[in-house]
Design goal:
The complex is a heterotrimer of chains A (54), B (325) and C (340). Chain A has two helices and no strands. Chain A is an all-alpha fold and 54 residues long. The radius of gyration of chain A is 14 Å and the shape is extended. With 325 residues, chain B is α/β, with parallel strands linked by helices. Chain B folds into two domains: 167 residues, no CATH class; 123 residues, no CATH class. In chain B, strands 1, 2, 3, 4, 5 and 9 form a six-stranded mixed β-sheet that branches. Chain C is 32% helix and 22% strand. Chain C contains eleven helices and 13 strands. In chain C, strands 1, 2, 3, 4, 7, 8, 9, 10 and 11 form a nine-stranded mixed β-sheet that branches. Chain C has a four-stranded antiparallel β-sheet with strand order 6-5-13-12, with no helix packed on it. The termini of chain C are far apart. The chains are: A mainly alpha (54), B alpha/beta (325), C alpha+beta (340). At the A-C interface, loops of A face strand 12 and strand 13 of C.
């Protein structure tokens, strides 16, 4: 539901990902992070709702 | 006549030994306003009323019973609060009871079957700056409005609050006494949400950035919500401070999203937040989006009865998990 | 005092020509609401002088104001707005202008507040006379007038297709001189009409209450049961304080980004919140809404009078109109008077 809400507010849903990874699933963790990194690189940096620099 | 029956029930409620006071509606101090009234036993119930102008929820007062730090004999008695409740109000009460926010035996609910209430902004735009108290009754799909000595007949749909057009439970779901005819529950409609969902992400972002930049963080939406009753709200926490108090689109966004998410699977669409917002933010858009998701993803409707468990405290193996990598 | 005529058709031109050199604030229609914000010459803002703008104090007393910034090397950079562009607040009502005059006494007191004062000194106030008061206006009961001049540099009275403009100050004269081509001299008829409208406006104020002696009454009835009675329906939402033009309570917070730089900000606060008087010990001298709403009324009608000699209220009626539960200040004051 959180992902849907964020998408509804204009944040690309690719930015919030969830997965179950246990401490012994090293390869799975690496694979997921690679996948997410690739997805994020393709959509570029977050521009929505940025905190103004102090 | 609903008002007559309401007064009879109110009199009966106040004559009970276990009722502390009754919360109902009375005519407001000017124009088209309605005001809450707190009547103690032996006090006059003459001012009690019910009309299409009753567009505020009284449920908040149940949660606002402030007890000073010292417990007295009085405070420990299981005294009841009698309350006039419309359909949406009883959904809130159901949820509060289930969440243990209030005990069922602390309430004496006089349910009133509601046929929809008037949107304050709409009627005040139609009849601006009316100071003398005005009256509205519903008749044959029209509102008969008496103000400034004149009578006007306006079709109901022109003044009806938008949320009432998608109301699912016009008849109270929980009550000790019921006034008015039982109306069947209606299916849920989320057309305006579906329409917004179709928009591309950039347009959604532009819309909300514009809206959130208007927010002045008066916290009225949170303060008026019957289901926001934490003794310490996360937004007021200073250590750690999750969201800065300064007004900025990013902080405003965080506040609104956090509040909406704290209502995920809970909001019963009474619309008080949107009604009171001084900056006219479309807050119900966010809440109804989650209400739609709760329905479509989990088949859940909040506040249907005091037994159904809160959505986010339960897990079933059939719950959708497509989003998990 | 100079009197001039400005045609209504020329108002947009007047504002547009000033927009280059000044930041012009005006009440505009936005999302079916009337908001008071900078009126950009290039944007399609629809001027709205018929409805009451919800909040106006943010033009001089912003919701969030940076006081100073700091960094890890203990460098502090004050953020007092210096060299600020001149601001014009156009289309405010006399009660709103009077509220700034009230805030002036507060912020220019023993310890002058440079943030507020710089903004105030660089702001020119152009009012629109309240020939049709709003539903809950009660300015005449608190020492105000729908066509009053307190705090204003210019006052425009609506004569139909033109405004009768009264110039009260040097700042106002300067402004008129800069746009002299848009102004003409009023006729005797214009002056007469203006006067009649002023008198009518005063009679048109719909809500009244005789507040003579209220300060003394309040001094006596602090523990009276009337307070519980009138405050029961308040839900502590804070809308009254945020929209009130004379409410000025604020909180000061530090914010830091990535622990490298930070800033101290002042933000609006509300005495209607429980946290407002919450002590670090956990004790709260105003634990319930009864004490808090009572305090608000005391502040405006006794404490402010004791300190500054005038009511801390201009009778704009916003708290009554915007209160979600119909806590009606005039009604409450009547009840308070009755408790004497």
């Amino acid at each position: 539901m959180l992902r849907n809400l964020l998408e509804f507010s204009g944040i690309n849903p690719l930015r919030l990902r969830m997965s179950w990874v246990s401490a012994s699933e090293g390869k799975k963790f690496a694979d997921i992070i690679t996948e997410i990194t690739q997805d994020l690189k393709s959509i570029g940096p977050q521009k929505a709702y940025l905190r103004k620099a102090v | 006549m609903i008002v007559q029956k309401l007064k009879e029930e109110a009199a009966r409620a106040l004559s009970r030994k276990d009722v502390k006071y009754l919360i109902g509606y009375k005519k407001g101090s000017y124009g088209f306003r309605i005001s809450p009234i707190f009547i103690e036993p032996k006090e006059d119930i003459d001012k009690l009323t019910f009309s299409p102008l009753c567009n505020m929820s009284l449920v908040k007062y149940v949660m606002m019973e402030e007890t000073l730090p010292t417990l007295t004999e009085q405070a420990m008695k299981p005294s009841k609060i009698a309350l006039v409740a419309r359909g949406c109000d009883t959904r809130a009460l159901n949820l509060l009871i289930k969440e243990k926010g209030v005990a069922r035996d602390k309430l004496y609910i006089i349910g009133v079957s509601c046929t929809g209430v008037i949107d304050q902004r709409k009627i005040e735009a139609r009849f601006p700056e009316v100071t003398d108290p005005a009256d509205v009754i519903e008749e044959n799909g029209n509102y008969i409005i008496t103000c400034n000595g004149q009578s006007h007949t306006i079709p109901k749909e022109e003044l009806l609050a938008d949320l009432c057009t998608v109301c699912q439970y016009p008849t109270p779901l929980i009550y000790d006494k019921l006034i008015g005819d039982k109306a069947a529950s209606r299916p849920a409609h989320y057309d305006e949400i579906k329409e917004f969902e179709q928009l591309p992400v950039e347009e959604k972002l532009a819309f909300w950035q514009q809206q959130f930049s208007k927010c002045i963080r008066c916290y009225a939406c949170r303060n008026v919500c019957p289901l926001c009753y934490s003794t310490i709200c996360s937004m007021d926490s200073l250590n750690p401070q999750w969201v800065w108090r300064s007004v900025d689109t990013s902080e405003n966004f965080m506040f609104q999203i956090i509040r909406t998410f704290h209502l995920a699977g809970r909001c019963i669409s009474c619309g008080e937040c949107e009604r009171v917002c001084p900056m006219n933010l479309p807050l119900m858009k966010l809440n109804r989006k989650l209400e739609k998701d709760a329905k479509e993803l989990f088949g859940y409707e909040s506040g249907k009865d005091p037994e159904s468990k809160p959505l986010l405290t339960t897990f079933h193996s059939e719950d959708p998990q497509g989003f998990i990598l | 005092m100079d009197m001039l005529i400005l045609k209504k058709d020329a108002v947009n031109e007047f504002l547009a020509s000033l927009s280059g050199r000044y930041t012009v604030w005006a009440p505009v229609q936005k999302d079916s609401d009337t908001v008071f914000e900078p009126f950009g010459a290039g944007q399609h803002n629809v001027l709205d002088l018929t409805h009451q703008a919800k909040i106006i104090k943010h033009a001089i007393f912003p919701q969030t104001e940076q006081l100073f910034s700091f960094d890890q090397n203990d460098q502090i950079q004050e953020a007092i707005p210096g060299d600020r562009e001149q601001n014009i607040l156009f289309g405010i009502r006399p009660c709103d202008a009077r509220s700034f005059a009230l805030l002036d006494s507060v912020f220019a007191g023993d310890i002058p507040d440079p943030y507020y004062l710089v903004r105030r000194d660089t702001t020119i106030l152009i009012g629109v006379a309240c020939t049709e008061p709003f539903a809950n206006c009660f300015c005449t009961s608190v020492g105000g007038n729908p066509c009053g001049r307190d705090g204003l540099d210019l006052l425009c009275t609506d004569l139909g297709d033109r405004y009768l403009v009264a110039v009260f100050s040097e700042k106002g004269t300067e402004l008129v001189n800069k746009t002299a081509s848009l102004f003409t001299k009023p006729s005797a008829e214009d002056m007469k009409q203006g006067q009649e409208l002023s008198h009518r406006a005063e009679r048109a104020v719909k809500r009244h209450i005789d507040l003579s002696g209220i300060t003394d009454t309040l001094a006596r009835i602090f523990e009276h049961p009337v307070w519980k009675k009138i405050t029961l329906k308040c839900i502590g939402c804070g809308i009254c304080t945020y929209t009130c033009p004379t409410c000025y309570c604020f909180d000061i917070q530090d914010e830091s980004m990535a622990q490298k730089r930070g800033r101290r900000v002042r933000v609006w606060d509300s005495c209607m919140y429980k946290e407002y008087t919450l002590h670090a010990s956990g004790h709260n001298p105003r634990p319930t809404r009864v004490e808090r709403l009572r305090n608000r009324i005391y502040h405006k009608f006794k404490f402010h009078v004791d300190t500054y000699g005038v009511f801390g209220c201009v009778g704009c009626g916003r708290c009554i109109t915007l209160c979600p539960v119909n806590e009606d200040l005039v009604e409450n004051l009547i009840a308070v008077k009755g408790a004497a």
